[in-house]
Write a structure and sequence with these properties.
InterPro entries: Olfac-like_dom (IPR003112), Olfactomedin-like_domain (IPR050605). The chain has 449 residues and is of the alpha+beta class. It is built from seven helices and 25 strands.
Amino acid sequence: MLIFLAILSLAGSIHSQRITGQQKNGSCVCDVRSLAWTFPAIKYENVSDLVEDCGNALQTLQTQIEETKVTMPNLLATVENVTHRLGRFQYLNSNGLYNALHLKQLGEEMQQLQDIIDVTHNDNPSKETVQLTAEITQAKQKVEKMYKDNVFNLETVKENLRQLNNRAQSCRSISAEFRSTCSQRIMTNISSPVVTKLSSYGKSYISGAWGRETKPDSEERYWVQPLTSGHRSGNIMRWYRSFSDFMAFKDYKDEPVAPSNTHTNAIQGPGTMLYGEAVFYECYNTGELCRYDLKTKATVRKMLPDAGFNNKFPYCYYTCRDWSDINLSADEQGLWVIYTTMSNHGNLVVSLLDSESLNVTHTWKTHLFKKSATSAFMVCGVLYATRYVDTYREEVFYAFDTATGHEDNSLALPLEKVAAGVANLHYNPVDRRLYMYNDGYLLAYQAIF
């Protein structure tokens, strides 16, 4: 009876049954079977695993939320910055002005080029000028089609104009005699240094220029021009009347080109050149060129159109050479200026100068990004550029021929040096040597053709 009550109390309201027991060996034995006592172990394990997975997922989600809270301000700031920068362009585009303005500017550039080609053809007609006339006419027709179809591919047209302009400049400036005797004489090698000397100013003046008078038939002079104020500016050119005086650092004359290092006529950057009894350089703190006459002591200034200055476009291949935006160079054809403009996207531009008035007479635009080079110079109407190899080696890797407009970036002419930085490198057509200002050391090389 007690066994029956116990079973009944356990079963509760779920199920009840009467069980008959048997007495064996002084004990009451009974057999009880009930589904109510079966525990769902498998279901329990499944639910337990699901709860654990949910817990892990929630923990991962919580971590992601925390990380998002941290990064979201930066993302929002970036989006806001980009939106702000694109705002003015979106305004122009939505008001139908952006393309129209660019096409108008493009049309003006094409008309200027058309005028140059017409004048060149009238002065010296040739097969090339006839071809240029046909190509500029075709280019103008393409632009007219852009207006009609509202399909714009300005970069392609601008690149075409750049090439046409380079060819037109070559036609009007490079004589047939010059092409056959000079511009085809591409350098094939460069000697080891034939002069290696520490500047008389010492190694502390790491930026500057040096060389020999570069204009043929001029008085022989060797000169050194260090930048004595923060490697940025200077106002003294030291020159010697002979090579022996230079090697002995004796009987020199210090020529002041300006009253001080920060005077408006002071020298800025290491791009100085002595050419025909005058010192040519970038005027202090401007994009202007200065010409200081050694005889009259007078200074002529002229703005270099669209030129970058004040570290806008320095040479920068390995480490940037500050204040190297504009440098002068000379060769058999005359005086050149090498620089960069925004309109040429930071690529090198070379212009031929009138050495008396400083007026730009001809301009060529290259594809070489200036900050990918350590220096550039002119030889026989060809622009060369160098790049850093290591502390003791540079190499000439690029050439642009102004006579043909041809670019070659496959050169590998070795150039030894004694220190890492190249402040100035230029060619002298009188002795066909290259002169390098190498972190206070003065080096010269023989150009081999």
